[in-house]
Design a protein that fits this description.
- By secondary structure, the chain is an all-alpha fold.
- It has one domain.
- The chain has 4 helices and no strands.
- The two termini are 29 Å apart.
- The mean pLDDT is 94.
Length: 103
């Protein structure tokens, strides 16, 4: 194991990176499906515009979390998306000194 992987900073950065990937997939996969429906003529321009607006609002919310310092973002993720975090932490044991918000 790389010694960096046992640091709180590495753990926080990994948490934020994994959360970023999870949330972007959560946002963009449905958007891609909608784009395909629009391309096939199954959605109107107004419907795709509304979908973009909804996606944009969610991206803005996500950026408010991810644009924080990694230690702060890690805490926000733990509080704001507890269900995802509890699944993640089962596979990523926090190192000594890592700040973990208790339920």
């Amino acid at each position: 194991m790389d010694p960096r992987e046992s640091s709180s900073q590495w753990w926080e950065e990994r948490l934020v990176a994994d959360y970023r990937e999870y949330r972007w997939r959560q946002l963009m996969e449905p958007m891609c499906r909608r784009m395909e429906k629009w391309k096939a003529g199954e959605l109107t321009s107004a419907e795709i515009e509304q979908a973009f607006e909804e996606c944009y609002q969610k991206i803005t919310e996500l950026r408010h979390i991810l644009n924080q310092r990694p230690d702060r973002a890690a805490l926000l993720i733990q509080v704001l998306d507890r269900e995802w975090f509890e699944g993640w932490i089962r596979e990523h044991t926090p190192p000594p000194g890592a700040r973990v918000v208790l339920p």
